[in-house]
Design brief:
Structural class: alpha+beta
Strand content: 25-35%
Mean pLDDT: 87
Low-confidence stretches: 193-198
């Protein structure tokens, strides 16, 4: 990510920014612009989103959103994150549909689940910083999707730690501690189901 524009953005500055489809995060008041995602990155996000939205819609249990959408971490110094996919549980946030999202510029409710699709440019430090921010705003679970390894690492988050609870490979079926009865074959995320004609 590269920094752009004004330094030391305040929360009020942030609220006056025009709407954009560009991916960015604000870290300690500095806007960091991310390069556009690759088509493959968008594929992985889409496969996860489709499966999550089907699950959540069947149960009327909340809302699933894809980036770019801001999660507010801190107002001072201003800090936001944009996970690739996030799930807002109706039980935790009261958000059940569009009417609950209307007029909201930034999400201040804690997400139950975030998904990060890793790219070659992500350092371990970048990931650790994101996890620390997600822990601070009470996100319960994070999925780290590695296209290179074709794995999904599930982490349980708490204020004290991010603990790996499972790592699913291409022959496995993902399950989640916070989504009862949710399953997703890892091959479906990485396209092998379709490539092999299964």
């Amino acid at each position: 990510m590269s920094s752009i524009g004004a330094k030391n953005l305040t929360y009020e500055d942030y609220l006056s920014l025009p709407e954009t489809k560009q991916r960015y995060e604000i870290i300690d008041g500095v806007m960091l612009m991310a390069p556009g995602p690759t088509p493959a990155h968008q594929w992985f996000m889409q496969r996860i989103f489709i499966n999550l939205i089907n699950y959540v819609t069947e149960r009327d249990s909340g809302v699933v959103l894809v980036a770019p959408v801001d999660l507010l971490v801190d107002r001072e110094p201003l800090r936001t994150r944009q996970p690739d996919v996030l799930y807002l549980s109706a039980e935790r946030t009261g958000v059940k549909g569009l009417s609950d999202l209307m007029g909201i510029q930034v999400l201040e409710s804690s997400s139950a689940l975030v998904v990060e699709v890793l790219s070659p440019g992500n350092s371990r430090r970048d990931i650790e910083d994101k996890l620390a921010d997600y822990r601070r705003i009470a996100v319960r679970e994070c999925w780290l999707v590695s296209p290179e390894a074709e794995t999904v690492e599930i982490l349980r988050l708490s204020i004290d730690a991010a603990v790996t609870t499972a790592i699913f490979g291409v022959d496995d079926t993902l399950s989640s501690e916070i989504l009862d009865d949710f399953t997703l074959p890892i091959r479906e995320i990485f396209g092998q189901v379709f490539a092999k004609g299964i």
